[in-house]
Amino acid sequence: MKIQSNMSVAVTYDLYAGEKDERELMEQATVEKPLRFIYGLGQMLPAFEKNLESMTLGDKFDFELQPAEAYGEFNPEHIIDLPKEIFLSEGKLDTSIIKEGNTVPMQDSEGNRLMGTVESIAEQTIKMNFNHPLAGETLHFSGSVIDLHEATAEEIAAINQHSCSGCGDNSCESGGCESGGCNSGGCGC
User: Fold this and answer.
1) Domains of the chain by start residue, with CATH
2) pLDDT tens across 156-167, in order?
3) C-alpha count within 13 angstroms, C-beta hemisphere, residue 120
């Protein structure tokens, strides 16, 4: 049986970000907590899925995704100052949530969900970074296929019920759809 559309797939992997000499381990999906997804439903980055296409149970993989294939280039225009008042609840700033380095769910003027990381807090503004945390990074995945079967109706229904509106749109990162993204693995999103 080979990986193809509507197959339930589970993989283990180590995800490193950066260039060869400066790679940093960003995430691991283990046998105990693998990344599970339905192939072809748009849950994962297209280039991630393409690299797994036609693999079989037990196959190992080792590939890189360039920024354009993953989360795009870092865009300085995605760092903006927002009025501090929009973060106030009952006239106060919740500093347990709105603090430097914390990623928080937000909504734009058109109702789209997105995640932003607090860069800094000033007297009147809060600087937010709406780049994906892995924007501009080369991603290196190394792992293996540990489960593969036809997706059941229940598995597909569960995916549709808990959908994060697609990955790579900044809604599925840490804090988006629970810990680590659309799936327990997150960055494969």
Assistant:
1) 7-71+136-161 (3.10.50.40), 76-129 (2.40.10.330)
2) 888 776 554 333
3) 6
